[in-house]
Design brief:
- This protein is of the alpha/beta class and 373 residues long.
- The chain folds into 2 domains: 119 residues, Oxidized Rhodanese, domain 1 (3-Layer(aba) Sandwich); 185 residues, no CATH class.
- It is built from 17 helices and 9 strands.
- A 5-stranded parallel β-sheet has the order 1-6-5-2-4.
- The longest helix has 15 residues.
- It is elongated, with a radius of gyration of 25 Å.
- The N and C termini lie far apart (57 Å).
Length: 373
């Protein structure tokens, strides 16, 4: 049975309430693409203690007015609110009605009643650890002598780099001596990693700089981008190093693969793919693609590793994406990394659209990314 006006209007004798059994039927037929199966399901409990699957958004019961932009624009749209016991949702429903909404109900007994009836809860407080693992994300390639070579070529001015990035002893060794340790990003080293990979992505000869926008329509303006003119840690002008060195040995076939992957990898700071690396994160992502393609790493792993690095650089954006999928019952480890890195989710426009769908996050991240040294 679809929701329809009959089922919705005959839920209970109390027009403000929906029972657990009735909610189960509604959720079983919930379909945002169908007017008959569309309703907005909102968790209003604070502090956050989990939520029922297929929740559309979280708005704390005492933030309904302040967060009213996250409510449906249509004041007649069906809405169901819930909390842990029913107390907060009872308060929230009155506030929502005062905002002019005419078709609002709340779950009798809240999440407590839902669980007593055998229903399960999703705990979004665990999402951050899935997206941003404490151990970080490791690439299956080592730093090698990348740092010393970049310094020798002048792509990195050692003194400028050390002044801009406060290095740990381990990072100074990577920069000046090289190491066999694998490239890893975590919550503490994001700036160092992006700057190192930025320099590599800038200097490495790439199909991206020959056949992409920076080699075609923007060729005469290539030095005006944040990723080129913004690289201030070189000896001399950054453009003297763009697309110049064979630091990573790539065959023509591998270069073609780099280009194909680059066109499918976006970043939430702008609307461009890595095929147009006009910012530092774009060039850093390009370097990752080149390193992994040169290492004959399979494509699925390349996308998964890129998603991991992007997530540490843009934690806020990917926590929203992970929350969006968690509410559909899809854990972060099971999402299609290639699809997530595409325009729909990872471009600035796509990320904003997902944020709007998710609404307020119950647990905001403590980390994030930005472009620039």
């Amino acid at each position: 049975m679809l929701i329809g006006s009959f089922l919705w209007n005959n839920l209970t004798s109390n027009p403000d309430v929906v029972s657990v059994r009735q909610l189960q039927k509604l959720l079983a037929n919930k379909n945002p693409a169908s007017p008959a199966g569309r309703f907005t399901f909102i968790n209003v409990h604070t502090p956050y203690e989990g939520e029922i699957g297929q929740t559309d958004t979280f708005i704390a019961y005492d933030q309904m007015v302040a967060q009213s932009a996250n409510l449906p624009k249509d004041k007649n749209a069906p809405i169901i609110l819930y909390c842990k016991s029913g107390r907060m949702s009872t308060e929230a429903i009155e506030t929502v009605k005062k905002l002019g909404y005419t078709n609002v109900r709340h779950l009798a007994g809240g999440m407590d009643a839902w669980q007593k009836a055998g229903g399960k809860l999703i705990n979004l407080s665990l999402v951050e650890k899935e997206v941003l693992p404490e151990g970080g994300i490791e690439l299956p390639v080592a730093w090698g002598d990348m740092g010393p070579r970049l310094i020798e070529l002048g792509v990195i001015d050692e003194a400028k780099f050390k002044e801009a990035v406060k290095l740990t002893p381990e990072q100074e060794e990577i920069l000046t001596k090289g190491t066999d340790k694998k490239i890893m990003i975590n919550a503490a080293n994001g700036q160092f990693v992006v700057d190192m990979l930025w320099a590599l992505g800038l200097a490495q000869k790439s199909i991206v700089y020959e056949e992409g926008p920076m080699g075609k329509e923007y060729k005469d303006k290539a030095g005006n981008f944040a990723s080129t003119g913004g690289w201030s840690l070189a000896r001399g002008n950054a453009m003297e190093h763009l697309n110049r060195y064979d630091l990573i040995k790539l065959t023509p076939e591998q270069q073609k693969k780099v280009g194909e992957i680059a066109q499918n990898v976006y970043r939430p700071c702008c609307g461009n793919s890595t095929w147009f690396p006009d910012c530092n994160h774009g060039m850093a992502a390009l370097a990752i693609i080149e390193l992994l393609v040169a290492g004959n790493v399979d494509e699925a792993t390349i996308y998964r590793k890129l998603l991991g690095f992007n997530s540490f650089w843009f934690a806020d954006s990917y926590l929203y994406v992970a929350t969006y999928f968690a509410r559909q019952g899809i854990p972060w480890g099971e999402v299609d990394a290639k699809a997530i890195l595409g325009k729909e989710y990872s471009s600035a426009q796509g990320a904003q659209a997902i944020m709007k769908k998710v609404g307020q996050l119950p647990n905001r991240p403590t980390r994030g990314g930005s472009c620039g040294t």
